[in-house]
Specification:
13 helices; mainly alpha; globular
Length: 280
């Protein structure tokens, strides 16, 4: 009989407490009546009211949302085309190229930020929203690429082959069969990219302009002068939004599985069906 011990459960409990207790405290003290974050003065929603009256904060939030949307859309296009293209080519350096494409995830953000800043300065591109979108898009492409590539590996290739046998071209096979099956993975990657872009403060600091302020940069500059319950309220809202995006990303990544049997054959036949001629 094996000896059972509680040490694994204790270890998991300690690690969980260390990781999530600070987050719980931030959420709790966002409802603090006192202006001093470390002193509990009673339950209150006034810091949420103060946050919603802060025009500069909402301007930075709007810039961050626009930036995250543009970056996630650009990453979706580049990542999807890249993942699909790699399934169609046979190169000796294919594995090396795929490894290089994943470097933005593995390289520390401070190094990426310096690289982007140097590159944009060398080509003479003015710092602002354009440089932010380009940098965040490059940073988010690997997230879409990984999810789309995983979905392509698990797809039933007989669908596309059946459509080609029935006369469908490569373009029609892609848009009628492959792309609909990739939509859940693409949306999942976009949501993950949106969350990562919204949180990329280090890269944003290096490539932003003097007239563009994003929400992470705004929060970072305010923290230098001391954390107020308004920042706690903002962090609580951002945490909730990030959790929702991550949950949606996981849910979308599990739906839209390739169909089997009769539905496969019907899809391929519809894709290859000729367009009826118009009566004269």
């Amino acid at each position: 009989m094996k000896n059972r011990t509680k040490l694994p459960n204790i270890y998991i409990g300690v690690v969980t407490a260390v990781l999530y207790l600070p987050i719980v405290l931030v959420i709790i003290y966002s409802f603090n009546e006192s202006k001093i974050s470390s002193v509990w003065g009673g339950f209150s929603l006034k810091w949420y009211e103060t946050l919603f009256r802060d025009a500069a904060m909402f301007e930075a939030l709007g810039n961050s949302i626009v930036l995250a949307l543009c970056a996630s859309l650009g990453a979706a296009v580049i990542g999807t085309l890249g993942a699909y293209g790699f399934t169609k080519v046979q190169l000796r350096t294919k594995s090396a190229v795929e490894y290089v494409s994943m470097l933005p995830i593995m390289i520390p953000e401070i190094i990426l930020g310096m690289v982007f800043m140097t590159f944009f300065a060398l080509i003479g591109l003015p710092f602002g929203m354009t440089t932010l979108i380009l940098a965040h898009t490059a940073f988010c492409v690997p997230y879409v690429y990984m999810l789309v590539k995983a979905r392509l590996v698990g797809m039933d290739k007989s669908l596309a082959e059946a459509a080609r046998d029935l006369g469908a071209g490569e373009v029609r096979v892609f848009f009628d069969i492959t792309l609909p099956l990739l939509v859940p993975a693409i949306l999942s990657g976009m949501l993950l990219s949106f969350a990562m872009s919204l949180d990329a403060v280090i890269i944003s600091i290096f490539v932003t302009g003097v007239n563009v302020n994003t929400l992470p940069i705004k929060v970072y500059t305010q923290i230098k002068t001391g954390v107020t319950p308004e920042i706690n309220a903002l962090c609580t809202l951002m945490l909730g939004a990030t959790i929702i995006l991550v949950v949606l990303s996981n849910v979308l990544g599990k739906v839209g599985k390739p169909r089997t049997g009769k539905q496969h054959k019907e899809t391929a036949e519809r894709s290859a069906a000729p367009v009826p001629a118009q009566p004269q």
